[in-house]
Amino acid sequence: MNARFLEIEITGRCLYKCRHCYGNFPKKGELGLEKVREIIGQAKGLFDCLIFSGGEPFLHPALPAMVQEAAHDFLVFITTSGYPISDEQLQQIKNKSILVFGMDGIGDTHDTYRCFPGAFENLVQTMDRSRDVPKEIIVTLWKGVIPEIDEIIKLGAQYNAIVHFNGLIPVGRAKNNPDILPEPEELEQLYRKLYQFKMAGGSVVTDLHKVTEKDTEAGIDLFCRGRFNITPLGDVRPCEFHTAVLGNIYTGSLQDIINRAHMLCIIKSREEGFKKDIRLDLKNPFDYHTTICHTLPCN
Question: How far apart are CA 205 and CA 149, in angstroms?
Answer without folding.
Answer: 13
